[in-house]
Design brief:
The protein is α+β, with helices and mostly antiparallel strands and about 400 residues long. The chain is built from eleven helices and eight strands. The structure holds flavin-adenine dinucleotide (FAD).
């Protein structure tokens, strides 16, 4: 693949950058009231959608632009470079949307996809349960068919955006015979259905990014089944692969590395040989990650499954993020113990927040250990891990 922008992509990048600069100049900081903040974030996504920048690679029939995946990457890069606010419906856009395009019925695609793009419906992902995370197939939330509906009972956990989501795509057990992976179905559930209870979970960063979701006799229309009954595992595997791929994070990490260098300079550590080697290693890892991302992109541009490259990228990105934040706190020395809210904190304590957040990236979407298992089995052809079953 040619790594420089093609002429038309260069023009796209320039127009996008000019648009973003103008739009960002008009953007206010998020209000402290959570409901108002959600509305402002929806409005930001809508503004980008109306300008033709959301759903770049999606089919036109469902509100997309049918552009190449390269454009999607350019969009992510420019947003990260200019520090644009994230798109609020990230789970709908990056995880459910591509899965619905591949596996949804025509009616589901027409009903749900345009509303994802405009942030009319915010989505959350109901996969994990108290006893089913890495071993997702052991999930126990169950659904039985009753007339035109499924009736769902059980509990989900770590549901990101659960407290603000309008809809949830969830995995339920519909048959107990056979292997654990068989008998799972994939449903689209309105979060306002009677019997859905959301309990926000407070994290170490003091944010309540995710939640527990309790499901008590929740009725979900049969029309909201994605794929075939009992065959949801196939859709779930594809969904996880969409969750694990993505290049935009590299630009953000690139920015963090620059900031790390500034921090080292501010602390007069730039002539420390050990630290210089550490920074150089982080830079090399970032470059390697970038080219792995290009490999995934090349496969996607050709309509080919990127295979284990998505797991490699996910592992490398989250571990690199963790190493950058570890280095930041090491550079701060004794100041590392002082966080946000303390007037003595360096950089107003933002590295402490980033450090705590970085752990989450090595867990969400599949842990680093599980990614290593996937790479061992699918990329290296090693025997299946015993722990993974
Ligand atoms: C920020 C964040 C957001 C999330 N958002 C969502 C969401 O929106 N929706 C959702 O459904 N879930 C979400 N999750 C949950 C996430 O998918 C799970 O936390 C993850 O899959 C791990 O599952 P677990 O927490 O049950 O840990 P476990 O599976 O119990 O793992 C515990 C430890 O054992 C290790 N381990 C497990 N199996 C193996 C193995 N075979 N080999 C080696 N080591 C192993 C793991 O690596 C881990 O260190 C989110 C998690 C985080 C951190």
């Amino acid at each position: 693949m040619d790594l420089a922008d093609a002429t038309e992509d260069r023009a796209f990048r320039a127009t996008l950058r000019a648009f973003l600069e103008r739009a960002l100049a008009e953007t206010r900081s998020l209000p402290s009231d959570p409901a108002a903040a959600v509305e402002q974030s929806r409005a930001w996504q809508r503004k980008l959608y109306d300008a033709g920048y959301v759903g770049l690679a999606w089919p036109r029939a469902y509100g997309g632009q049918e552009a190449s995946p390269v454009r999607q990457v350019i969009f992510g890069e420019e947003c990260a470079r200019l520090g644009a606010p994230p798109l609020i419906n990230t789970i709908g856009l990056n995880i459910l949307g591509p899965a619905l395009i591949a596996f949804g019925s025509e009616e589901q695609k027409r009903r749900f996809l345009p509303r994802i793009l405009r942030a009319d419906d915010l989505w959350c992902q109901g996969f994990s349960e108290p006893g089913a995370g890495s071993d997702l197939a052991s999930l126990r939330t169950a659904a039985v068919v009753d007339g035109d509906d499924f009736v769902v009972n059980g509990q989900k956990v770590w549901t990101s955006l659960g407290p603000i989501a309008d809809w949830c795509f969830l995995l339920v057990r519909t048959d107990r015979a056979g292997r654990a992976q068989q008998g799972i179905s994939y449903l689209l559930m309105d979060m306002r259905s009677p019997g859905v209870r959301v309990e926000p979970l407070r994290q170490i960063t003091r944010k309540s990014h995710f939640s527990e979701v309790f499901l008590d006799d929740v009725r979900v229309p049969r029309a909201n089944l994605v794929g075939e009954l009992h065959d949801g595992w196939r859709v779930a595997k594809a969904t996880l692969s969409f969750e694990r791929s993505g290049l935009a994070g590299v630009v953000e990490l690139e920015k963090r590395l620059e900031e790390l260098k500034s921090l080292a300079s501010q602390r007069r550590r730039l002539d420390d040989a050990g630290l210089r080697q550490r920074l150089a290693r982080l830079f090399v890892e970032k470059e390697a990650l970038k080219y792995t991302g290009y490999r995934v992109l090349t496969a996607q541009s050709r309509g080919v499954d990127p295979g284990p490259a998505a797991a490699i990228g996910k592992l490398a990105a989250s571990e690199l993020r963790r190493s950058i934040m570890d280095a930041a706190l090491d550079i701060q020395g004794p100041y590392a113990a002082i966080g946000r809210g303390n007037p003595q904190a360096l950089d107003r304590g933002r590295w402490q927040g980033l450090f705590l957040d970085a752990r989450a990236y090595t867990i969400g979407g599949g842990t680093s250990e599980v990614m290593r298992n996937v790479i061992a089995e699918r990329a290296l052809g090693l025997p299946k891990s015993i722990a993974g079953g």
